[in-house]
């Protein structure tokens, strides 16, 4: 009866095989084979993959499943930590806004420390490649003394564009966390999805929506002020056509 307490029929079979004798053992060996050939409908993939090399103890099975899971997603999924680093990316985004730049900020984190940070500087530098992510990635590579940003997580307030996703893939960054989506040119699902394209030799684990409202508010506030300023300039030009030297 106790066997029914096990969620997994394979596990119960393994346990009983190890702890029973005689005919009961034979019957349970049969049950083990049956369990392997007909896995639970919702069994995790790790379990199916490992079916042919089960250890003789439940503990071994559990550890192999855990290892398999770790291989799929080696990243730290601590939401609180993600919000903390996204807050740092927002600090960078605000710095861009103060310069009159589209407010996007990014930080690169390794082992819980920020090793690169940047904000959009396209207007200031007259360089189309100076997106927040590119600057943060360059700084992180310099800090590590390597172009391979292994074990790093990139936090950025806005869904990356194709250029930045290209850089993320080339830098072998295993994890990306972004705030709000960019429905116009986003390359992580909105328009393109470079994070899961099998033609690349690198996959990026993605977490999205971290402080998305704050990230989005910063951008929409910036564009609202930009539109208001443009409208004011147009009105002034109509009221005083002679004073159009600023255009
Ligand atoms: Zn970009």
Summarize it:
This protein has 247 residues and is an alpha/beta fold. Helix content is 49%, strand content 12%. It has 9 helices and 5 strands; from the N terminus they run αααααββααβαββα.
Helices and strands in order:
Blueprint lengths: L8 H11 L2 H16 L7 H5 L8 H15 L6 H20 L6 E6 L2 E7 L2 H4 L6 H13 L7 E7 L3 H9 L4 E6 L24 E4 L3 H28 L8
Helix pairs in contact: 1-2, 5-9
The chain binds zinc ion (ZN).
The site of zinc ion (ZN) has 6 residues, from helix 8.
Question: What distinguishing features does this structure have?
Answer:
binds zinc ion; 49% helix; elongated; disordered N terminus; five-stranded mixed beta sheet; alpha/beta
Mean pLDDT: 77
Structural class: alpha/beta
Q: Identify low-pLDDT runs.
A: 1-25, 27-72
**Which kinds of small molecule does this entry bind, naming each only once?**
zinc ion
Describe the structure.
With 247 residues, this protein is of the alpha/beta class. Helix content is 49%, strand content 12%. The protein contains nine helices and five strands. The protein has helices at 9-19, 22-37, 45-49, 58-72, 79-98, 122-125, 132-144, 162-170, 212-239, and strands spanning 105-110, 113-119, 152-158, 175-180, 205-208. It has a five-stranded mixed β-sheet. Strand 3 (152-158), helix 8 (162-170) and strand 4 form a beta-alpha-beta unit. Helix 5 (79-98) runs parallel beside helix 9 (212-239). The protein is elongated. It starts with 8 loop residues before the first helix and ends in an 8-residue tail after the last helix. The model is unreliable at 1-25 and 27-72 (pLDDT under 50). Bound molecules: zinc ion. The site of zinc ion has 6 residues, from helix 8.
